Amino acid sequence: MPVIEKSFCTTKEAATRLGVSVGTVQLWVESGLLQAWKTAGGHRRVIRESVEGLLHKAPSSAPDLPQPTEAPQTGQRLSVLVVEDDSSLLRLYKAKIAAWPMAPSVELNSNGFAALLTMGRTCPDLLITDLRMPGIDGFAMLRALQKIPEASGTRMVVVSGLDRTAIEAQGGLPDGIEVLSKPVPFERLQQIAAEITISRKRLGYANL
Description:
The protein is an alpha/beta fold. Helix 5 packs parallel to helix 6 (138-145). Helix 4 links the parallel strand 4 and strand 5 (105-109). It has helices spanning 11-18, 22-31, 48-56, 87-98, 112-121, 138-145, 164-169, 186-206; strands spanning 8-10, 36-38, 44-47, 79-83, 105-109, 126-129, 155-160, 178-181. The protein has a five-stranded parallel beta sheet with strand order 5-4-6-7-8, sandwiched between helices. The chain folds into two domains: 8-56, Multidrug-efflux Transporter Regulator, Chain: A, Domain 2 (Orthogonal Bundle); 79-206, 3-Layer(aba) Sandwich (Rossmann fold). One of its GO terms (molecular function) is DNA binding. This is Excisionase.
């Protein structure tokens, strides 16, 4: 007899399918990115269709999804995640950031879906993102990250061609996110990276 696939799955099964932790799946359920319900015993059951729908939001032209990485450890160099769907601009970001004096590690994602997976595995010190992207755009990504406690230590900066009026017309952004206009102001981004580096050093000294 043919095997009939259930219309729902456990949070562990959803995590395995998406390649993230169970905790991340639970947070995505709470943020509305995944649809779920609770059994009488209080266990979450995730709608399988919403899991597949989230997977399919990643554009087919996107580069390979990020592979799991180890969590950052104290003393590691500054880590930066750039989210931008323009491949030529991503290459420019990589080249410019690589020349910064603090020599940060850089990860590049071409859409909000891939970025959420990255953030679900390890949160960088600095997130630089565009807003208009296919699938899960910057607006949805930032609102989801706002509800993930682990992302609270990441400084988030938007670099967009949208003006503030256009951004507000689409619901605005979470508090505390600096908005910069294109063309990309690399000098300001380097200043932000330097501020984070100084703050990390101060925290390191405070913990000695």
